[in-house]
Amino acid sequence: MDVPARARRDRAVITGSAGPDAGKGAVPARSSRGSGQPVSLTGTEAVYRQLFDSFDRDRDDKVSQWAVLSRLQGCGLLPDDPRIQEALAGLRATEGASKQISFGQFKALAKHNSSLIQRAVEGNLAVPDFPALSSDIERMYGELLPVRSGSVADYIPQLRRVDPDQLAIAVCTVDGQRFSAGDARTAFCLQSVSKTVSYCLALDEHGPEAVHKHVGREPSGRSFNELALNPKGLPHNPMVNAGAIMTSSLIRPDLDIADRFDLVAATWARLAGGRRVGFNNAVYLSERQTADRNFALGCHAARFRLTASRYVRLPQFRASLMSGDVWLGLVKSGALVLGLVLVCRAFPVG
After folding, report:
1. Is-contact 101 111, C-beta < 8 A?
2. Which of 49, 65, 68, 73 could form a disulfide with 29 if both were Cys (CB 3.0 to 4.6 A apart)?
């Protein structure tokens, strides 16, 4: 039975839509070994038993960890997900190295991380039919792969050396369902993507009212690096260079530049699900040599040389799409059911 069909069956059992007798009274569960009689379960216990019974069991009434992980992977929850690893590590700590899971252990797994595994087995994650979405991503990747228009960015000398044939697509839902295609493990400089996190850090520290005393909220209608301010003498918004320089200057201004850098780096690591986020010093040095416009944009800040220099550092954080898709899912979790999709190529498409 495929994953969507199995998920629909499990959901029907849980919701009582599987038939007129579904969900009525006690659910007979397989007896414990040697008891000879089925044990009647009710309520939540019956729900967990129905989920447990959807897996193939051995003679000891246990299921394999592999079977559970395989079902979760079909739903988009990958084995390297820290939440899954944490749950399995807890089992190993208490039950040794056994690869078989008893009903009691399965219940503990199902309850872990706000019943994440239970919802996955039931088919109640953000995207119930995740294989269909994955298939669509694969199709889009295949359609984009032959595209060779455009050129690599050349406004920073080091970026001219990027392989123009690299292409990757990655998606992460708000439940952490993930899929990627192409060069998703290849690290790349985040560049202007870093502006979003800098803005969020400033908002978290000072609140929107204080932040927007220093930067506007409206589109500029101009180039991202234009030497221009709005009629109030502020950068137009946090996503143009002038605005990003300003929001960067608002992040823990009481700390020295090294500690502020470490703070932002640690934030990126957390957003990437604990995965390593590197720093490309070669691109940083290359951009700093050609950053006269950015230093000019920072002139209206009290410590403009420090501020602009720090801003130039932030875009040089390096991550792969396998990391970036996680933080995008987190950023969007308060707004949309489906997290943002990352499509990355070394040159603009179209």
Report:
1. no
2. 49
3-state secondary structure 158-193: HHHHCCCCCEEEEEECCCCCEEEEECCCCCEECHHH
Q: What pLDDT is stored for residue 20 in this prediction? A: 40
Which pLDDT score is estimated for 335? 31
**Do 236 and 312 fall within a single domain?**
yes
User: DSSP readout, 42-73?
Assistant: -HHHHHHHHHHHTS---TTS-EEHHHHHHHHH
**Are 191 and 307 in a shared domain?**
yes
Domain annotation covers residue 340: no
- Tell me, yes or no, whether 82 and 197 share the same domain: no
pLDDT of res. 319: 53
Phi/psi of residue 342, nearest 5 degrees: -95, 125
298 bridge partner residues: none
Which mean pLDDT values do the consecutive 10-residue runs of the chain (350 residues) have?
48 40 42 46 77 90 88 89 78 60 85 80 90 95 92 82 88 88 84 86 93 92 85 90 87 88 85 75 77 69 45 52 46 35 37
The rounded radius of gyration (Å) of the Cα atoms in the chain is 25
Does pTM surpass 0.70? Answer: no
Whole-number pLDDT of residue 17: 41
Domain count, the chain: 2
Give residue 196's Cα distance to chain centre.
14
What gap in Å lies between CA 87 and CA 105, rounded to an integer? 10
CATH number, residue 225:
3.40.710.10
DSSP single-letter state for residue 277 = -
In a domain, 115, yes or no: yes
Tell me, rounded to whole angstroms, the distance of Cα 172 from its chain centroid: 5
Same-domain status, 210 and 117: no
Question: Strands 167-172 and 178-182: what pairing?
Answer: antiparallel
The partner residues of 171 in beta bridges, in order of sequence, read: 179, 341
Write out the residue range of the structural domain in which residue 246 sits: 187-319
8 vs 17: CA distance, rounded Å:
10
Structure confidence at residue 190 (pLDDT): 79
